[in-house]
Design a protein that fits this description.
By secondary structure, the chain is mainly alpha-helical. It has one domain: ABC transporter involved in vitamin B12 uptake, BtuC, CATH 1.10.3470.10. The chain contains 14 helices and no strands. Helix 2 packs parallel to helix 8, helix 2 crosses helix 13 and helix 12 packs across helix 14. The radius of gyration is 20 Å and the shape is globular. The two termini are 30 Å apart.
């Protein structure tokens, strides 16, 4: 049966089965120790990767829907760079111990509060009064992202070299030391957002048609776009605060999801993107651990692959 003849529902089912296979392989390959240790240890990593993969994939899909642009990701709003700036400031003020000074839970709260608070202030400033342009939002996000990056780079150049090494390790996504309590809190927050997003799936189909069509179809465009952007900010903030920034991962997954799904409907795109995000992270971590013996970080590989996908999408759009 040729792939084009497969229905979106069947493709989702096959992808879910592939995900179960990858989870089973991740949990069992090389498990030579006690299962009472292996299952909780690996189970936490699996849960973190599923959570982060789903959150990043869905947030990117939502952001591309409201901006009507398939080469943009939520990182354009500067949230990843704000996370880097927070980490850099802590190391600059208190040395390498600054990352552990507040404790993982308070640091988690600080990072989420800063990122969500920044997003809300940005949305309020740009979606109040007569200013309602999404392109202006993207432009302002880029400017703030460059500002945060410049400040982080300046502080990184004047801190102690030994502290800088510790800082560099903290700026890559890490799934090996996830706090179980923070994971549970993150799962609740992301789960609530995903439920709301799924209930909005038909409205998202309308938003994808553009502002004029959305208004003509009776949907309050301004309010819905603001709501979607807030949900995007929550998903990105929670996943980033939990494991670290993964900039191009969403672009990579969502681009593949559009190709696999063969549909523009969010009732198909949402589960496919979520499953792809989880499967990609799990399979990538499995290969890095069992084939390359953790010779590099998963985040570096994802950034490289996502960067190639970004260049390919740009060239594809230019040819068209």
């Amino acid at each position: 049966m040729p792939p084009r003849s497969l229905s979106p529902s069947l493709r989702i089912t096959l992808l879910a089965l592939a995900g179960l296979v990858v989870v089973a392989l991740f949990m069992t390959i090389g498990a030579n120790g006690s299962w009472s240790f292996v299952l909780p240890f690996r189970g936490t990593k699996v849960a973190a990767m599923i959570l982060v993969g789903t959150a990043i994939a869905v947030s990117t899909l939502l952001f591309q829907t409201v901006t009507a642009n398939r080469i943009l990701t939520p990182s354009i709003m500067g949230l990843d760079q704000l996370y880097v700036l927070i980490q850099t400031c802590l190391v600059f003020l208190a040395g390498a111990a600054g990352l552990t000074l507040l404790g993982p839970r308070w640091l988690f709260v600080l990072e989420i509060a800063a990122m969500v608070g920044f997003s809300l202030l940005l949305f309020r400033a740009l979606f109040s009064g007569s200013v309602r342009d999404l392109h202006l939002l993207v432009l302002v996000g880029i400017v703030f992202g460059l500002l945060f990056r410049s400040l982080s780079g300046f502080l990184a150049r004047i801190i102690d070299p030994n502290d800088f090494v510790v800082l560099q390790d903290a700026l890559f996504a890490n799934f090996n030391s996830v706090d179980q309590e923070l994971l549970a809190i993150s799962a609740i927050a992301v789960g609530l957002v995903l439920v709301l997003v799924w209930r909005m799936r038909h409205v998202l189909d309308v938003l994808a048609l553009g502002r004029e069509a959305t208004i003509n179809l009776g949907v309050e465009h301004r309010r819905m776009v603001a709501l979607v952007l807030v949900l995007v900010a929550i998903l990105v903030s929670v996943s980033t605060a939990l494991v670290g920034p993964v900039t191009f991962f969403g672009l990579l997954v969502v681009s593949i999801a559009y190709q696999i799904t063969g549909s523009e409907k969010h009732r198909h795109l949402l589960p496919v993107a979520s499953l792809l995000g989880a499967v990609t992270l799990l399979a990538g971590q499995l290969v890095l651990e069992r084939v390359f013996a953790l010779g590099t970080a998963l985040g570096i590989v994802i950034e490289f692959a996502g960067g190639l996908m970004f260049i390919w999408l740009l060239l594809k759009g230019k040819v068209r």
